[in-house]
User: Fold this.
Amino acid sequence: MATASREGNLQAPTRHPLDWLNPDFYNEKSLFDEMERVFDICHGCRRCVSLCESFPTLFDLVDESPTMEVDGIPKADYMKVVDHCYLCDLCFMTKCPYTPPHEWNLDFPHLMLRAKSYKFKNGDVKTRDRILTSTDTVGNLAGIPVVAQVVNAANKFGPARKALEIVLGVHADAKLPEYQSNTLRKRLAGHESISEAVPAGRTKGKVALFATCYTNRNEPGPGEDFVAVYEHNGIPVTIAQKERCCGMPKLELGNLEAVKEAKEFNIPVLAKLVDEGWDLTGLVPSCVLMFKQELPLMFPNDPDVQKVKEAFFDPFEYLVLRHKEGKLKTDFKNPLGKVAYHASCHQRVQNIGQKTREMLALIPGSEVEIIERCSGHDGTYAVKKEFHAVSMKIVKPVAERVKNAGAAHYGSDCAMAGHHIENALKDGRAPEHPITLIRIAYGI
Assistant:
């Protein structure tokens, strides 16, 4: 007897490994057939219309086609949908009723990743995008003393930004990160914690920080705050001996071979730390997600990748886990008042709950308003000339929530999202990373 089709999932979504080594992964007919199948399901559902610009783009293409169905869309226009996807994963994790184990087996983000990979393999990629995703190369150059000051000054100089927009396609109004010559790795060079590790629950009680390109080169202050907060709680901290970009920018570009190269550099270093008894974390949610989800799905049979996955924690998840075991200090000295806290997409999809909010809520005299909406930044999407206006439309409701909250502090787990909100607010107030707020509350 045939089993009736189910209308949506009643089970948590499960992720299949990314079959990127299969030649069929790059086969044009196979890819476009799958895109047509998935787009037709999305057209009939439309639950994800508010998440990002991919879905309004798709639905407009359908509604403006001669048939008003997916079969009326020219195949070349499919890539307009792909270009607006920045792999936030929210559709898969929070909206779509047809994800596995549903029989329709719909994984929209990984289908978009497959299409991006197809485009990259066929040379359909801009020089600008190659540069923007080469975070190590750009950071090493822009972080040179004197060069850093020149780059930072140019990024704030209107005529220089207009020239950059014309030559490279980086929008003149997009907020670009500053570069620091005194990097986090320099600041923590030779650093040694004096505390003894005290295991508690799932935590081993000592943590190795994956500095990340952004925290290291662009905003090292929260990295120092992280060390202060963790060591205040008796958690020894070290920094990974060496590292490259986690690979997330190259993943979003569809350059999977570059992701593999980054993995082959980073994973042996991190796996060795795990073998030495260290837990792992990073202050950029996208980097944490890379090690917790994307690399394990790309390399499901690599034992070191899986080992690193199991040892990787979100930094606030780690503190809350310690708190539940009675191993977190709550000797907060300074109330924060009202905090408008933006929960970043790549933290939300880690399935760990609202751990940053839980941590901030422990501080007496503090009220946390959580904003669970995409900021529309994505690391590179918001700075591109053709997408900046859309990114500002996406961030507008987030900025309105911050403005209406009348909060003493605002910020995001993703520092780049925080600065994108700052760009939308235009009120002169700077965002503060939640780990910085926790340090302020401790008074250390």
Notes: The chain has three domains: 23-121, 184-320, 330-442. DSSP finds 22 helices and seven strands in the chain. The chain has a mean pLDDT of 91. Strands lie at 207-209, 237-239, 279-281, 312-313, 337-342, 366-371, 409-412.
